Amino acid sequence: MNKIIESKFLAKDVKRFVIEAPKIAAKRKPGQFVIVRSNSKGERIPLTIADSDLEKGTITIIVQGIGKSTKEINSFNSGDFFHDVVGPLGQPSHLENFGTAVSIGGGVGAAIAYPTAVGLKQAGNHTISIVGARTKDLVILEEEMRANVDEVYITTDDGSYGFHGFVTQQLQKLIDDGRKIDFVLAIGPIPMMRAIAETTRPYNIKTVVSLNPIMVDGTGMCGGCRATVDNKTVFVCVDGPEFDAHKVDFDLLIKRNKTYTQSEKTAVEHFHQCHYDKVFDLAISENKS
User: Fold this and answer.
1) HSE-CB for 29 with a 13 A CA cutoff
2) Which CATH number is 58's domain given?
3) How many CB atoms lie within 10 A of CB 189?
4) Given CB 3.0 to 4.6 Å as the disulfide criterion, which of 60, 99, 182, 220 pairs with 235?
5) Is residue 274 part of a domain?
6) Do 187 and 110 fall into the same domain?
7) Is residue 115 part of a domain?
């Protein structure tokens, strides 16, 4: 079992956990992930390692509560335990001095982009980070990005903070302004990553995306995370999670990710009902006493 050292909400439904995991902290590299289970019967959830502290023996993950399992994870607090945390898994990010490197994080994708952005800076690149969110309250890791990269641009869909628009528009603006961009890393919702790929394609800018498909074991055995890249089948958990954005079959990826949409919806509704029942029963009990 892995003890939660710290837990803190960064935004609505987005929570940061610092977890005791010394062996993982000693081996992890930017771009790698862990698989977390909240209990012995819990779903296996792949989560990128956002940071680590070798001296303290801890890793940091950031969880967005969307489905039943991630909402359950976000109900945990400091001092609680995850049943198990397995990793580091996946291939590390390829880091070299490309020149000017742009890391783009849409929503909670900023948490996945952050460690690679730091690695790109350490590799000698001039680093630019574009962090996007629907609204100001959902922007995460801005402070951490500003402390570790050369330039940071914030975008919000509603214009409540930073650039009014999408991360793709901010990237296009940089290109239109004549900025020479040698490498782009994009992480976020699939439509966003596909849009970034189409933005950079005409300029032949090397572009990488980090995929997060349905995943079970994280070792390539189950085949659940398979995707098509360059017309070949890959297993994201062992061959990735990062791939050439211009070669990913995003249409197929979207279809596969919708496989369990109805089941996930039912599970979330059941989770909310059970949570409501527990709160209601506690209130009744307190009133009786």
Assistant:
1) 10
2) 2.40.30.10
3) 15
4) 220
5) no
6) yes
7) yes
* Same domain (yes/no): 148, 71: no
Element (H, E) at 100: strand 100-106
Residues spanned by the domain of 249: 100-257
**What pLDDT shows up at residue 212?**
84
pLDDT at 261 over 70: no
**CATH number of residue 177's parent domain:** 3.40.50.80
Residue 106: what are its φ and ψ, rounded to 5°? Answer: -100, 120
Model confidence, pTM: 0.83
Residue holding tokens 């498909």? 213
Neighbour order of strands in the sheet with 51-53? 51-53, 58-64, 14-20, 2-11, 81-82
Q: CB-based contacts of 249: which residues, under 8 Å, 6+ apart? A: 227, 228, 229, 231
Tell me the per-residue pLDDT of 19-67, one tens digit each, with 9 for 90 and over: 999 999 999 999 999 999 988 888 888 898 989 999 999 999 999 888 8
- Token pair listed for 24: 């993982």
Give the residue-averaged pLDDT of 88-98: 93
